[in-house]
Amino acid sequence: MTLIRQLVNQDEFVGFYLLKEVEVKQTNATPPKDYLDIVLADGTGELPAKLWDASSVDKEAFFPMGLVKVKGLVQTYRDRLQVKIMQIRPAKPEDGVKLTDFIRSAPISSTELIHTIKQVIADISDQEIKDIVTFCVGKVEEKLEHAPAAKSHHHAYFGGLAYHMVRMLELGEFICKQRPFLNEDLLKAGIILHDIAKPEEMVAQLGIVSEYSVQGKLVGHISMASNWITEAAVRLGIGTESPKVLGLQHLVLSHHNLGEWGSPVQPQMAEAVALHFIDAMDAKLQMVEDALNTTPDTEDWTPFIRGLENKAIYRLKF
Amino acid sequence: MTLIRQLVNQDEFVGFYLLKEVEVKQTNATPPKDYLDIVLADGTGELPAKLWDASSVDKEAFFPMGLVKVKGLVQTYRDRLQVKIMQIRPAKPEDGVKLTDFIRSAPISSTELIHTIKQVIADISDQEIKDIVTFCVGKVEEKLEHAPAAKSHHHAYFGGLAYHMVRMLELGEFICKQRPFLNEDLLKAGIILHDIAKPEEMVAQLGIVSEYSVQGKLVGHISMASNWITEAAVRLGIGTESPKVLGLQHLVLSHHNLGEWGSPVQPQMAEAVALHFIDAMDAKLQMVEDALNTTPDTEDWTPFIRGLENKAIYRLKF
Amino acid sequence: MTLIRQLVNQDEFVGFYLLKEVEVKQTNATPPKDYLDIVLADGTGELPAKLWDASSVDKEAFFPMGLVKVKGLVQTYRDRLQVKIMQIRPAKPEDGVKLTDFIRSAPISSTELIHTIKQVIADISDQEIKDIVTFCVGKVEEKLEHAPAAKSHHHAYFGGLAYHMVRMLELGEFICKQRPFLNEDLLKAGIILHDIAKPEEMVAQLGIVSEYSVQGKLVGHISMASNWITEAAVRLGIGTESPKVLGLQHLVLSHHNLGEWGSPVQPQMAEAVALHFIDAMDAKLQMVEDALNTTPDTEDWTPFIRGLENKAIYRLKF
Amino acid sequence: MTLIRQLVNQDEFVGFYLLKEVEVKQTNATPPKDYLDIVLADGTGELPAKLWDASSVDKEAFFPMGLVKVKGLVQTYRDRLQVKIMQIRPAKPEDGVKLTDFIRSAPISSTELIHTIKQVIADISDQEIKDIVTFCVGKVEEKLEHAPAAKSHHHAYFGGLAYHMVRMLELGEFICKQRPFLNEDLLKAGIILHDIAKPEEMVAQLGIVSEYSVQGKLVGHISMASNWITEAAVRLGIGTESPKVLGLQHLVLSHHNLGEWGSPVQPQMAEAVALHFIDAMDAKLQMVEDALNTTPDTEDWTPFIRGLENKAIYRLKF
Amino acid sequence: MTLIRQLVNQDEFVGFYLLKEVEVKQTNATPPKDYLDIVLADGTGELPAKLWDASSVDKEAFFPMGLVKVKGLVQTYRDRLQVKIMQIRPAKPEDGVKLTDFIRSAPISSTELIHTIKQVIADISDQEIKDIVTFCVGKVEEKLEHAPAAKSHHHAYFGGLAYHMVRMLELGEFICKQRPFLNEDLLKAGIILHDIAKPEEMVAQLGIVSEYSVQGKLVGHISMASNWITEAAVRLGIGTESPKVLGLQHLVLSHHNLGEWGSPVQPQMAEAVALHFIDAMDAKLQMVEDALNTTPDTEDWTPFIRGLENKAIYRLKF
Amino acid sequence: MTLIRQLVNQDEFVGFYLLKEVEVKQTNATPPKDYLDIVLADGTGELPAKLWDASSVDKEAFFPMGLVKVKGLVQTYRDRLQVKIMQIRPAKPEDGVKLTDFIRSAPISSTELIHTIKQVIADISDQEIKDIVTFCVGKVEEKLEHAPAAKSHHHAYFGGLAYHMVRMLELGEFICKQRPFLNEDLLKAGIILHDIAKPEEMVAQLGIVSEYSVQGKLVGHISMASNWITEAAVRLGIGTESPKVLGLQHLVLSHHNLGEWGSPVQPQMAEAVALHFIDAMDAKLQMVEDALNTTPDTEDWTPFIRGLENKAIYRLKF
Fold first, then answer.
1. Are residues B179 and B121 in contact, defined by beta-carbon separation less than 8 angstroms?
2. Other residues' Cβ atoms within 10 Å of the Cβ of residue F171
3. What pLDDT is stored for residue B173 in this prediction?
4. C214 vs D contacts (CB less than 8 Å)
5. Do A98 and A176 lie in a common domain?
6. Which residues make beta-bridge pairs with C21?
7. Exposed (0-12), middle (13-18) or buried (19+): which is A175, by Cβ within 10 Å?
8. How far is A213 from chain C (nearest CA, A)?
9. What's this model's pTM, rounded to 2 decimal places?
10. Closest CA of chain A from F124, distance in Å
11. Domain identity same for F31 and F169
């Protein structure tokens, strides 16, 4: 079975893939003919595909986010690869393939990531901070198993958000050792809470964001997390204006650093400054690592990366 | 008694004034002498003043925000007017002067302004919106009687915030009549809530802001108001993610329009667009009106107004 | 007869429409075939359409901005609706349809709008201001009946400019009542003059702008209006540097507020500040109202609105 | 007689100078003493000066922009040179000194500059362009003899505007030879008209701008020049929308290149692009030349130049 | 033979052209057919072209940057001209056509341009500056014969860089005469060195840039030229921190004026200020001249020019 | 002996201090009197001081950066502390005080820091990279013992640059472990080279920068380091365009990330992205740590920190 990333022009191939998108459209022939406009995907990438002359059965048989077996030919259309589908059918139980094998995922399993996060929470020494963090994580616990960290910017895959948290926690632990004046409870709590509302800000399935939720657009994950901390305080009987509550809200509200990047206040606590840079460094380096991993070894340059001033990354060889 | 605004160079005067600031300082003579560095104020303006050769009694007798009787001489120092104090004493009960006569105030009494605001709240037809607004106003009810709308930008005087609200409500009522597709309940609630946390964001006395509170710096009035709406919902048993709660939070969060002006989300409801422009127009026109009112009639130009791209306003005469 | 806005995929329909654009093009078949590339429109919207296999007669029969009777089928092409034309012929006198029924118009008739504007001019108490305004309006009187207020930004339809003026005049009247220090003559004149050169800045037919005029590009409507005021003064024997002339020019020149928005000077008169905000508020709220009106009731979100930081507007329902 | 630029700390000197500013002020001694706060100037620079213990006669004897004979001592006050005046008296006729010897001037005489400009106008081949230019120059003919080109930015001295025009005309002539597709009449006219309204935008005496005029603030020299071209056309019977009028207005309106620099339209004619760069290059190189000329030879770096991104210029020696 | 620029819709033509790009692609017919997707060019412009039904021989016969004889038909596709190729064959020796006749070139021959540049170098009076300039020019001597000055911005044709240098040297000579305080050696050297690394920054053939080199992306032509000057100094035994070396590096490093335009330092020498404006003026005026030259005489407006704030240029006629 | 940081208003004290600045000035008394305007400093801060009535001996006895014994009185002048000097004399050998005890220093000794840096260089596995780094470090080896990392922004003290390098190397080592795809040789070399030219860009003594050098202003440390790498390559016989040389130059040139922050190219290698964030994070967290350390424990807020968007940092206590 050929991985999407390995397909080149003129390849004929047979294999199982994720039917990421499918829509019935019409050619502009006379009379117009129906065809299926498809996006095939696996964990290594995705490609547009066409099933010309779709029958009525075809039009009923396929739905987005299902698995399919495809026989196809790779062609070039407007300078980009596109699959002409020869044969296609939905996967059957006896094929023994499962969805999670066909999506892009964090390199560590969700189970392990969430275990690590819970361990870090358990190690928070201040009880009120621990309770607030627990309350907020509880709001999205199920979704955290698969939520990506962003729509396309960085960590945009199954478990991406939890993976982002865990790498940031590692970096945070190092920084706290290097600079002991930082309050480790606050920094850990800030790392876990900073993007905690993202699973409710975006509608995602299998790590793929389809759109922003109404709440995500009208309120945004930064203010949502601040509101959750207030809700936690009210429900847990902690003063809504106590230093801990204000501190955690400040960490969340300021982590994008500037107003034009979405933060209504700028970092004004040592841990808030640290949180911003830990977040930025982890996100940017992951973009670089992911871009290098998904660029064929024969290419010296990755594609342009929007989150890096739209620059491509070069593989220096010597 | 001469008003501050009317004093000119070489005037000798006697009168009661507010001692807005007072500090003991030392000249660089040898040996150094103590003097009192003072700011005198009344409802029409303020002037720096010096009491040279301050006695030990003088140094104990005066405190900021008290009323004093002053005999003084107006001089010019570095191109600006400054009062040389001849005699000064604290006001006594028998002088019959009271603080509120010496501060800058909104042109309508606080009592009347707050009555109007309460009337508008009473007229909100949706019970949940009315309850949330009532809860949030309740948090600052006492301070609303005197709170200014800003530190110096606009409506920076006793009752300024309530006055800003009431003028905006008038404008909002007109706009709702002109464009009936707007939801009047939402717009009124948005007007009342948009700056409702300002009395807790800034520390003010008699309409004069001395500094921002810790909460004001770390969280800011926009996010504070959003958090209060969440707290109201939790305490009132309204769903924290119900459309009304999201809508009110959106109005508050987006009213500065752009991220660089402090709004984490941009207006995405008709009422939010209206709220932003009603707020901006009322604030800017009030700056203009106040600048013209406090500029002597003999001057064609007001001073530069920071909130108006630092432009001065011209009195066109014809 | 089905309105454009109501057509959905697979609809077959017959009706009269405006042929907004029509061009002969060729398919890339061998040999190439001629077809008509068409835009059909009515007051509710517009759709691309194709007449495949256009005969020589077809190629001669149709011209832009004419009315046609069409039998068509709605299809989807590249995710957007497109009409496949089955039959098409020009409208005939006996069809009893008239152009103005098929274009997007202001909700109030041009006759009524212009009557209102003239009434306001008649009420200006200062004779010189009234004469200058009359002179400038006289330059575009005929075009004012149909001119839009912009190419696509806001009020982009038949009578849009006059409608924008009238709503601004209503708002201006309210503001003058709320803040009596404003000079009502100046504000009204400013409202009428601020966009008065737009009908000469853009080439429009039936409320649809096809392009900017040479004068529009080289001088722009803001400087054109300033020049017209000078011309009026010279021709009417009013001093070109008299306060009224400078005041009116300042209102026009500063109404975009900032240099990067096209204003060579910033507002420095109270009425200029008011004019800018009245203009901005009316334009933005009309964008919102028009976007909501042209979005199907089944949709929660309007399309993105370029003039509103490219945000979509949400219909909050509760 | 020592030139201002040559004075150093501890110098005692006697000489004639321009009394650029003079004001009666008071020390904060008890009782306060009157002193004269003065700015002394000549063509090479200016210095603050104090006449301590000013007598009633002194206070009446001096007025700004008069010539005086001074005996003084140079001191250092807050890191800057300042003159302590020992003796001072107004210049008398028999002293044989004249004002224009004491002000900063263009290196070429006004008479010669204006002669050159008139010669260039005479050489314009298109009669209508020549007439419009003549009309506009006629409006400021007298002031052109002394007007500076700016308040402080560049060419801020007696005859500076005419000097700027003449150097630009030289450069324009070269460019027209190098690139013959440029229309020389338009470019010359554009150079002469681009700043022609500056003498009315600013109030200047002896090449020193004291403030902007009301018209300068409300309309600005760019729009004033555009209005003058309209006035010229009306009075000369040239069509106000003829290509020549639009072309000249475009040159004037676009010469600051960007909206944020004050141009309501951007250059859209070849001559307008040339005009902008000729203007910019001449202004910036003159700033550099003037800064180098007024910096003592012993200094390697000029002071910071605001118009050059606030950079200082280095004298490279090798 | 018809020039590309003269072709209009429905023209049938025969002639020789440059095959600027060629690629085998497939139609989306069933089964897909191969066709050649081609860009035809000559010195006056370029057009897309298609050879439908390409045979196996066709697919082997053509390569980019070769000359071909074409019989074609001009059609309109998506509002743009496109050539349908009837017949095509590679040019043969007996056709007597040569590549350089079919590319866009500077209006002066490379031989002449390079001769002029060498003459200027020979006239530099300082021996060390002359040696450094000679060393750097030596690095790209061969490429200078054909290198363009940019990928698409300005002077994007055969010999464009040398042409840009020569016109700048003319302008520089004039400026040095007008302002004798400028050091002519430094300014000339700066003009020759400022873009000297461009032939190594971009990969170009026949004046057409295909891409940036790795060095061009990672280091950029500005820092490359600075490094070359260091290399020259080391190899020529000139002090790497001597004033001349620093001066030349400063000229090169600062010539883009601002950090956001790629200059790590801002101009701080008189010659650096002059160099920046000479460079900018020559580049912009050449954009204008080239745009006017390649726009049909029947068009009043050129296309939008990206390097001129995306404005089009108008041909004023009177 | 009282530390500068501990002095409060009205304190009388005796102790040894660093005479950071000293200048003879004159009072504006008649006749003027000479006084010494002084800045006293130790490792904890600095204060302005005055020696009134300076004798001729006093005026000769003191020079900047010398140690002095002072008896003084702390006063308030214009809201800031200032020392009135009672007695002052230069320190003598028998006082047993040494300069380095009175300056602000990195918390780790220079010897130790430089030892660590050399150890890291020794561990670079690629010989050419090691040689280039060694060459560049060799250029500033002596100055590295005391050079600060910036004039005032961050690490502005004795040994600050070496301290910045060492902390960055620790962080770089952690990141390379966390993300093994990074090339550790390149990242370490980039960290050591990124600011290596700073000791030549600024003129510093005892960790205090007095000004930028000519080379620092005209070329800047970023381009200087790039030039040094070229020089190293030439002298060591390594290809000036070899991948290693380009890679190291890219790391140095891009480390400020954006053009407006001084980088002529943006990061386009994984190690360059990492370098930028390691540099930014270390600089910002050190600013925070230093601000907290030098703010009295009784203060909740540090002063505003220019390098942190001019925000103050809050000490959250709970």
1. no
2. 23
3. 98
4. 246
5. no
6. C39
7. buried
8. 12
9. 0.91
10. 15
11. no
